[in-house]
Amino acid sequence: MSETIDRIIAIIPAAGVGKRMGVTLPKQYLTINHRAILSHTLNAFLSHPNIDKVVVAIGEDDPYFKELPESEHPKLLTTIGGKERADSVLSALKYAEQNNSSDSWVLVHDAARPCITHDDIDKLLDARQEFPQGAILAIPVRDTMKRAGSDGTIDRTVCREQLWHAMTPQMFQLNILMNNLERALSEDVTITDEASAMEWANIQPGLVSGRPDNIKVTHKDDLPLAELYLKNNG
């Protein structure tokens, strides 16, 4: 690959308020081991030798980010995010394009997924040879899957063969992801992650098997589990 394409930028959408956590503080600023969840997440990318820049999309009136020790890191850039995750990602992509080559690779990662390891980042980066169209970290579904009916009962059992749990980072070339995401949003397409924008554009991202401890902190019960995983990972 060319030197230009080898440039790697991490995108962290962190403008959300974490409504499902039921707390007043945005969940990315809740602490694990005396550090904000977002600090753990940022450190994983800022400390990775192959990540050139980290762009964080924060809320317009965010008073917490500047208090993080990582906020002054020389590899870190910030921009203002949007109402939804996809809006924040698009804002960060546009900002990254202004400051980097448009054919750089971007790794979009959830702010509240603090247990990401360098090993999984390396696996995803290595997958560029096999999946030049881009790829995501994911894990195969292991449990029996049920589809619920409208009354809260089981409607049917879903075959778990070839089903995967999507995770992040999700890796694509900057200009391609930015264009497809912008087009999809302009047509009011529901975008749940970056891969869904690529799928909408008839691109099939690769699946890279990641670690199951790369969990997303969504509910309060996830906090002690994330703390355990972070402790085990050093």
Automatic annotation (TrEMBL):
Metabolic or biological pathway, per its Swiss-Prot or TrEMBL entry: Isoprenoid biosynthesis; isopentenyl diphosphate biosynthesis via DXP pathway; isopentenyl diphosphate from 1-deoxy-D-xylulose 5-phosphate: step 2/6
UniProt site positions, description: Positions MEP for the nucleophilic attack: 160, 216
Keywords: Isoprene biosynthesis, Nucleotidyltransferase, Transferase
Annotated site (Transition state stabilizer): 20, 27
Enzyme class: transferase
A biological-process GO annotation: isopentenyl diphosphate biosynthetic process, methylerythritol 4-phosphate pathway
Catalytic reactions of this protein: 2-C-methyl-D-erythritol 4-phosphate + CTP + H(+) = 4-CDP-2-C-methyl-D-erythritol + diphosphate
Pfam families to which the protein is assigned, alphabetical: IspD
InterPro entries per the UniProt record, alphabetical: IspD, IspD/TarI, IspD/TarI_cytidylyltransf_bact, ISPD_synthase_CS, Nucleotide-diphossugar_trans
EC number(s) per entry: 2.7.7.60
Gene3D superfamilies named in the record: Spore Coat Polysaccharide Biosynthesis Protein SpsA, Chain A
Keyword Glycoprotein: no
Molecular function terms from GO: 2-C-methyl-D-erythritol 4-phosphate cytidylyltransferase activity
Family: Belongs to the IspD/TarI cytidylyltransferase family. IspD subfamily.
NCBIfam families noted in UniProt: ispD
HAMAP family the UniProt entry points to: IspD
Described function: Catalyzes the formation of 4-diphosphocytidyl-2-C-methyl-D-erythritol from CTP and 2-C-methyl-D-erythritol 4-phosphate (MEP).
Stated name of the protein: 2-C-methyl-D-erythritol 4-phosphate cytidylyltransferase
Protein species of origin: Parashewanella curva
Gene encoding the protein: ispD
